[in-house]
Specification:
This protein is of the alpha/beta class. It has 10 helices and 19 strands. The longest helix is centred in the first third of the chain and has 17 residues.
């Protein structure tokens, strides 16, 4: 945390923003701003400024923010800097959720059927496109299709991912399906833009853009985590003066780390675990990162896709895409994960749809 920049944005917020005038009683002891409080006061925080960005709302009510043109231009500079780290190709096939007119001739909507996405990639490969950009969960499905159909991927030299956290299984699957491709990953959000980017020299680390954002990794008791310790991500935007985001709990977990590359001056995460709003809650009220359960479900033979929905503390709905009945195996996985067996309703489906923003959520917590 850069104390000078932090104090500067706090003073601006307290003097100009109606919410922060009341919220921050002591500038030396700024409270954490959780999502619920932000949503309840979103209009006050906007302070009459035009909304320039909002979250998708797929895991809750969308958050709206306003950024000046200067702040938007600053974000563009960081995107260009990250692109230079990875020598990112301009001949990228975009499989995303966006306005077609912004990317004529090189974008297909991520909600299109997988087979149409593959056909689109193959068509653009023939005219020199050598890179793919998409979300990790969609990239996983693309990789499986290329492996199963034994399609040639040698011309793809870059695979870029954003919008969701990437786990080790997905990373290794990309390397298997696209062995010639360099993998580029950003950790970002609608509220803040780029938060961190994968180190081009050591893919075990993400470098944090701490000259534009103040990043804290905190334990549940509010104390600072040590290196190697997972905690809640708390972010301050040093440059958003229109709708300040100060000590905002974005809803993610991450692990502090110390990248050994020695070539990029930014500090680093050694892992980013994604939205805690997709984490599950045990009967003691503790939030549990979904990735451990996800790995066990993924390892069930024949498992093609799955989605876990927690409707209450003791009641879960599990959607499964598998050619065989795996009720006992699913229940065994839940027993190992929680240490007890909650109520589970297992439904077999042909496919599990993405959200309206093109993202696929393998876990949804409704409590």
């Amino acid at each position: 945390m850069n104390r000078e920049k932090f104090e500067h944005i706090v003073n601006i917020a307290v003097s100009t923003n109606p919410f922060y005038k009341e919220w921050i009683k002591d500038t030396a002891n700024v409270p954490i701003l959780d999502r619920k409080t932000f949503l309840e006061n979103n209009q006050l925080i906007l302070n009459g400024y035009r909304v320039t960005s909002r979250t998708s709302g797929s895991t809750g009510i969308p958050v709206s923010v306003s950024q000046s043109q200067e702040r938007i231009n600053l974000e563009t500079r960081y995107i260009k800097m990250f692109s230079k780290w990875h020598n990112k190709s301009r001949k990228s096939i975009l499989i995303i959720h966006d306005d077609y007119s912004r990317y004529p001739g090189r974008m297909i909507d991520i909600n299109q059927p997988l087979q149409e996405q593959i056909q689109y990639i193959e068509k653009l490969k023939k005219i020199g496109f050598n890179s793919i950009t998409t979300f990790p969960t969609n990239g996983e499905q693309i990789c499986k299709a290329y492996i199963e159909n034994k399609l040639d991927t040698s011309s793809i030299t870059q695979f870029s991912l954003y919008g969701e956290s990437l786990d080790d299984y997905q990373f290794n699957l990309i390397k298997q399906a696209f062995p010639s491709a360099k993998i580029s990953i950003t950790y970002s959000s609608e509220e803040f833009g780029l938060i961190a980017g994968l180190c081009p020299y050591d893919s075990s680390y993400y470098h944090i853009f701490d000259d534009k954002l103040g990043i804290e990794i905190l334990r549940d008791d509010g104390t600072e985590c040590n290196d190697g310790e997972m905690g809640r991500v708390i972010i301050t935007d040093y440059y958003n003066e229109q709708s300040p985001l100060i000590r905002y709990e974005i809803g993610d977990y991450a692990v502090k780390g110390n990248c050994p590359c020695g070539k990029i001056h930014y500090p680093s995460f050694s892992a980013v675990y994604g939205k805690t709003r997709g984490a599950l809650v045990d009967r003691l009220g503790n939030r549990r990162i979904f990735i451990d359960l996800s790995i066990m479900l993924r390892d069930i033979p024949g498992m093609k896709q799955y989605q876990v929905i927690q409707n209450s503390i003791e009641n879960f709905e599990v959607l499964v895409v598998n050619d065989r009945v795996v009720d006992d195996e699913v229940k065994d996985v839940f027993q190992k994960y929680f240490g007890y067996l909650p109520n589970i309703e297992i439904k077999y489906v042909d496919s599990i749809p993405k959200g309206p923003n093109g993202k696929f959520y393998s876990s949804i917590c409704r409590i």
